[in-house]
Design goal:
The chain contains twelve helices and 15 strands. By secondary structure, it is of the alpha+beta class. The strands form three sheets. It has a seven-stranded mixed β-sheet with strand order 10-9-11-13-14-8-15. A five-stranded mixed β-sheet has the order 5-6-7-2-12, covered by helices on one side. It is globular and about 60 Å long.
Length: 421
């Protein structure tokens, strides 16, 4: 079934903004990866997700066509460039090395919620085959299922009565690269921080927080401590799943909006729990159904504006202009899909990482909850540990035990696009 592009377009055209817009999920297993079990699991898994077995084609406009070639599995940590002969022209691939399993998928065709579903299915098949065990099937999408139309279709194209988007005037946000003088530091880096799930949830309950709002608050406080005189706003955006507002829980597309958390001057002297309450209030107000749909209306307007440009180069320029405007309003981003719920397969997992590229010059923190611990992948477009150290100091001062598990150069494969030769 061919898929008309709409939701995907802004992400595809903005991939020229210094990043590749690919989600990389890295899973460290308890044991060495077994190649035949890996191949078996990938084949069964992807047979369940036909809408991800596609290639980008053009007939007047771009569309996604069914791709019957096998999904590529490579013995490497680097993976392959997507939408090329190396990936069989797919927008998804798998790789493995030692005890690491990696899935790369274009962020244009899905988001963290959609990618988690694929990994949930993959782990079911891989663990079952690798260890000869029978895992519970409840809550896992399996090969042979009837794939509902609600999984295929883009719910954004079905909505006809979105509320009017209220224009929101916002001041300029702190640019971390400029504030810290890091213009010459061009080494994207990920600092992976592990925290006990039980401990952090208990801390949140005691301080009226939630995982995403508390991480955003700690980052806000850390930035303010570093630059107390900076006149620009400290504004963290948190990812918002648009599926509930669209009444489309099964949709596979990239359906992410944002809620803005601004660390206002009047909050600076408040105790932590009162600050957390304020941030939760901001989230509540911005995740009301009508507010989410109004934000979606704004996103649709941007997509329509990009589509109105006649050439790829003009569309790229329009996407870059919108991204630059957005980047000027954001200091950092925090994203939390929610608890992974990989169920019985979790006991075979040692570590889990979720990587994707930062937006512009901002910091991105991806939060994952797998196998009893939160992992915070603190991703930045530079190597300097200034902001990580300030963030960890906030954890220290609030009695939160953490483990800085590793520091790695951010390496994510690119996607070959017709206008990116």
């Amino acid at each position: 079934m061919d898929q008309k592009l709409f939701t995907e377009l802004r992400t595809l055209y903005s991939s020229n903004w210094g990043h590749c817009n690919v989600i990389r999920m890295r899973i460290r297993m308890r044991d060495l990866v077994e190649a035949d079990s890996m191949r078996y699991a990938v084949d069964l898994t992807m047979s369940r997700y036909p809408y991800f077995c596609v290639e980008l084609k053009k007939d007047g406009e771009y569309y996604l066509a069914q791709n019957e070639r096998p999904i590529v599995v490579t013995h490497s940590l680097s993976g392959v460039k997507l939408n090329t002969a190396d990936s069989n022209y797919h927008l998804v691939s798998f790789s493995y090395f030692d005890n690491w399993i990696i899935m790369d998928i274009s962020h244009a065709i899905t988001d963290g919620t959609g990618a988690y579903e694929v990994i949930r299915t993959f782990l079911y098949y891989y663990v079952s085959e690798r260890y000869g065990v029978k895992l519970a099937e409840e809550g896992i999408r399996l090969a042979g299922d009837v794939v509902a139309e609600e999984e295929w279709r883009d719910p954004v194209l079905q909505v006809t009565d979105l509320p009017a988007s209220a224009g929101q005037q916002m001041s300029k946000a702190v640019n971390l690269v400029k504030a810290a003088g890091l213009e010459e530091d061009h080494q994207p880096t990920v600092y992976s921080i592990a925290i006990s799930e039980n401990e952090f949830m208990r801390f949140n309950v005691e301080n009226d927080g939630s995982p995403a709002t508390m991480v955003a608050l700690f980052l806000s406080r850390a930035i303010h401590r570093l630059f107390p005189e900076n006149p620009d706003a400290i504004r963290i955006t948190t990812a918002v799943n648009q599926r509930p507002a669209l009444k489309a829980p099964l949709a596979h597309q990239n359906l992410v909006g944002g809620a803005f958390l601004e660390y206002k001057e009047k909050m600076w002297a408040w105790p932590l729990d009162r600050q957390a309450t304020a941030y939760r209030g901001m989230i509540f107000a911005q995740t009301l159904e009508e507010t989410v749909l109004a934000g979606l209306a704004s996103q649709n307007g941007i997509t329509q504006m990009i589509l109105s440009r006649p050439s790829d180069q003009e569309r790229i320029a329009a996407a870059e202009m919108i991204d630059e405007m957005t980047n000027n309003l954001i200091t950092a981003t925090v994203s939390y899909v929610g608890k992974a719920n990989y169920r019985e397969a979790e006991k075979y997992i040692r570590d889990f990482r979720l990587w994707t590229c930062c937006t512009g010059e901002s910091v991105l923190i991806e939060i994952s909850a797998v196998n009893g611990k939160f992992t915070l992948d603190f991703t930045q477009p530079f190597a300097d540990p200034l902001f990580v150290n300030a963030f960890l100091k906030e954890l220290d001062e609030n009695g939160i035990t953490y483990d800085l598990q590793d520091v790695m150069r951010l390496e994510i494969p690119d996607v070959k696009l017709p206008w990116k030769e």
